[in-house]
Amino acid sequence: MTKIIWMTDPHFQNEGMVGDLNPRTRLKAAIDHMNTHHANADFMVLTGDLVGDDIEGDYTLLATYLAQSKIPVYPLVGNNDDRAGFRAHLSLPDGTMDDFIQYSIDTGEAQFLCLDTHMIGSHAGQFCAARQAWLTDKLSSDKPTYIFMHHPPMDLHLPPQDAIKLQEGDTFLDLIHGNVQHLFIGHVHRLTCGTVRGTPFATLGALSFQAPAPRPVWDWDSFVPAHEAPHYGVLYVENGNTTLQHTQFCAYDVGIES
Ligand SMILES: [Fe+2]
Description:
The protein is globular and about 50 Å long. β5 (111-114), α4 (129-138) and β6 form a beta-alpha-beta unit. It has a single domain (2-248), classed as 4-Layer Sandwich (Purple Acid Phosphatase, chain A, domain 2), CATH 3.60.21.10. It has helices spanning 23-37, 55-66, 83-89, 129-138, 159-162, 169-176; strands at residues 2-7, 43-46, 73-75, 103-106, 111-114, 145-149, 182-185, 192-196, 199-203, 231-238, 241-248. The relative contact order is 0.18. The protein is of the alpha/beta class.
């Protein structure tokens, strides 16, 4: 059995607030909760949007927070990340692509592919030919395959988030069709689950702010975070079966400062 803690979108800043949220308080609460209750997990995956605008300062302090984890941490890039800052401060597994933060975690029973969907200068995602070729090679494995990624490759009936999805989504879905057990996706700051061309997927609420439901209608100019508590995922993979538990690690008002 493989037990994985799945967290996403901490939007960590070494100082200041994200709206009325202190992202340092939230990340510490999540890691403390994980260390207390899930230190027996095999590893933690963090599916992107790790930092704010101060690339050097944010990654420097973020690394010290992640170092408090009792289990290995595997970070991915999101639209708000920076590959050079990421590599300078966070450790990555052997075999990570040279030009992209894309790598695999191999266990006895499965491979977990951590993809790089970052597109420089855009909030939307990109999955270019080089990243596609790497994935094609990995999909030739006989092991069951699970994918962690930041950008969803399809619409989720969440109009603001759908506008910044993975641009090469159709190509990506053609590539993985029939070859992947489950997709685990960040970016949307909201729980959804379902299937896409037969492949199960899940998105997760953020460690930081939560996106509201799509009704009443909102857009990025009128965006106000939902007053919903954050959570992380506890994922069990065993004999080809998958269970994802959503775990609230603190109350909504933890880290909210006026
Ligand atoms: Fe995000």
